[in-house]
Amino acid sequence: xxxxxxxxxxxxxxxxxxxxxxxxxxxxxxxxxxxxxxxxxxxxxxxxxxxxxxxxxxxxxxxxxxxxxxxxxxxxxxxxxxxxxxxxxxxxxxxxxxxxxxxxxxxxxxxxxxxxxxxxxxxx
Length: 124
Ligand SMILES: [Zn+2]
Ligand SMILES: [Zn+2]
Prior knowledge:
The chain is mainly alpha-helical and about 120 residues long. It contains six helices and two strands. It has a two-stranded antiparallel sheet.
């Protein structure tokens, strides 16, 4: 394994332990068994620039066949039916519908701000 790659991984584990990062389900299929993918590469300034992807989507990301998730799909595909929705997503939607700010919801549910923001945008 390349040295930069292993150091990038170590940086992610440390940030997770310190609570600077939180593990999220695969951004595309919501599989909770996800891995940190360094989408900008393994240089030091990009050590915490990660996407959470399941093994299938991670392999796609490295083979260049990965398609970015359609964020409209998060809500239209999952939320109305409340199928394949994690407890956390349900909580995010519930808090947003109560009119809470995305930044507060992100903090309270330990989610990334951009993730909550995307869901908030879909709910409008
Ligand atoms: Zn990767
Ligand atoms: Zn996936």
